[in-house]
Amino acid sequence: MNLTMFAIKDQKANAFLQPFFMRSSEEASRAFENSVKDSKTNFYKHPEDYHLYSIAEFDDQTGTMQPYTEPLHILHAASVKTKLPDSAEIWEAINKMKDILDNKE
């Protein structure tokens, strides 16, 4: 099976973090998005600093790796929605629900 090697670049440090392997870009994006949404991570605290890249292909049958000529950008952490709704959005949703409930009576 071929696996893709991914790495997250920290723009402030101008360095890539330790690489990891996934079956697809979609799987890596989902894992990265989940980390960005976790308030305990630096990805959540500083999303403007982190980018996910695909950097190589790995064949687990032969043990060989084919690095890309340059990293392929997949996702910027800042593009992942991490913010909680503000109080105006919460009140708007509460009022909509109230209107719906009032109309059922």
Describe the structure.
The protein is an alpha+beta fold. The chain has one domain. Helices cover 32% and strands 35% of the residues. The protein contains 3 helices and 5 strands. It has helices spanning 25-36, 42-45, 87-104, and strands at 2-10, 15-16, 20-22, 50-59, 64-76. Strands 1, 2, 3, 4 and 5 form a 5-stranded antiparallel beta sheet that branches. Strand 4 (50-59) and strand 5 form a beta hairpin. It is elongated, with a radius of gyration of 20 Å. The mean pLDDT is 89.
Biggest sheet architecture: 5 strands, antiparallel
Distance between the termini: 59 Å
Count of DSSP strands: 5
Unreliable runs, pLDDT <50, ≥5 residues? none
What percent of residues adopt helix (DSSP H or I)?
25-40%
Q: Roughly what fraction of the amino acids lie in strands?
A: 35-45%
Rg over alpha carbons: 20 Å
Structural class: alpha+beta
Total of domains: 1
- Total helices: the number is 3
Estimate the global geometry from the Cα principal axes: elongated
- Give the ordered list of helices and strands: EEEHHEEH
State mean pLDDT (0 to 100 scale): 89
